[in-house]
Amino acid sequence: MANALTGFAALSDPTRQQIFDRLSRRALAVGELAEGLPVTRSAVSQHLKVLKDAGLVVSRTEGTRNIYRVDPKGVAAMRDYLDRFWQRALASFKDEVEREDAW
Amino acid sequence: MANALTGFAALSDPTRQQIFDRLSRRALAVGELAEGLPVTRSAVSQHLKVLKDAGLVVSRTEGTRNIYRVDPKGVAAMRDYLDRFWQRALASFKDEVEREDAW
DNA sequence: CTCATCCGTAAGCCGATACTAACCGTTAGT
DNA sequence: ACTAACGGTTAGTATCGGCTTACGGATGAG
Fold first, then answer.
1. Residues facing residue A61 across a β-bridge
2. Contacts with A, B 34-93, CB within 8 Å
3. In Å, what is the separation between the CA of A14 and the C1' of D11?
4. What is the model's pTM?
5. CA geometry: angle at A26 spanning A20 and A29, to 5°?
6. pLDDT tens for residues A13-56?
7. Which alpha helices (DSSP H) does B1-103 contain, by range?
8. Pick from A8, A74, A99, A1: which is nearest to B54 by CA?
């Protein structure tokens, strides 16, 4: 994937979040994905491009159909990225975090 | 925080990513944050509101200064959210491979 | 070959949002 | 009380981004 930062932008849109959620359960073709979504198939295709460029999904071609699934590696990269921030934030404020209402 | 989804939107902007990165290293006042950023203090203040509403930062007042820091709980919520997707994608991937192969 | 299916892309519209400038309330120091 | 420092808010503008429509390329069935 490009980097974890583009991943946040990719998941910032509600429609893409919905697409991503459905893909995380099982692989789907573009047309299948478009059914049940309040947008056209064209919009879905554009969203899939964003998710793919961010490294969050991969696709394979089966005849005329393009089937997408979530790429666990991309998700792991974002999770690990956040984990570094989490640890860094904890390290610089170890004292305050223990007192819930200090801030 | 509101939910993990608003967190992604909050971190989708490059300027907010930069703000968040600097805050994760140490707590900073708004003015300190604005120095070294290519935008005005006003813009920084607006970005901080978005990050705060998303539960990613918290603030405390010290005289006339408002000091912000990263909230580890908000970061952990997003990380855990991604972790669920990661596990789900792995399980789904495993199922797909069993009935078809070669992605 | 013909035709239908499937999907990506281009153009354009329109709402969302990141930004600056200006203003105002609060606090601290003299 | 006056003034300066600090920062949140508003108004206005410009750019960005998600959407639809229309189109074109690729594959498969007949």
1. A66
2. 58-60, 69-72, 75-76, 78-79, 82-83, 85-86, 88-90, 92-93
3. 29
4. 0.90
5. 80
6. 999 999 999 999 999 999 999 998 999 999 999 999 999 999 99
7. 4-10, 14-25, 30-34, 41-53, 72-99
8. A8
